[in-house]
Amino acid sequence: MSRGTVKNRVEKAALVMKNNLKAALGKIEFIATTTDCWTSHRRSFIGVTAHWLEPQTLQRQCAALACKQLKGPHTFSVLASALNEIHTEFNIREKITRTTTDNGSNFVKAFRVYGHADENNNLAPAAESGKVDNDEEEEDEETENADVEFVEAGAILDEDDCLEYQLPKHHRCACHLCLTT
């Protein structure tokens, strides 16, 4: 068997496995991920795994989503870009409940800059109380809208400047937290 034949077979098998994993993850409502990065021989790498409960049996399942080389050093923006790309590739961006990482400053900053704003899952004050006075709210909106300039947002949203990523909520590994405090 030649080198080319082996390469083609491995690539085909990997594609079949990836498609099967995408199909399986498509049926799952909630997914957690773990992520780590490292450097070896001046090359940076990232590894991402997905974890979920099988809906029928409630058995834990996991799968490796990626283990790939990063372009350049593993800075917060490079990590955010790679994570966003992996989550998008497997169509799980909206399904991820948390991503667990070590306490590295690059991950902490990536999730602080590109992650959800509310780390503690706190509700807004109006939503917490469950009481909203609609009459006052409508009057406030009318007075606020008097000085508002409306701008076409479609063109702004269509621009892809590769600077914005949407990362899930961050969870730091407890073992790493104990070692750093």
UniProtKB/TrEMBL annotation:
UniProt superkingdom: Eukaryota
Region listing for Disordered, in residue ranges: 121-146
Biased composition (Acidic residues): 134-146
InterPro entries assigned to the protein according to its UniProt record, in alphabetical order: RNaseH-like_sf
Name under which the protein is recorded: Transposase
Species this protein is from: Cirrhinus mrigala
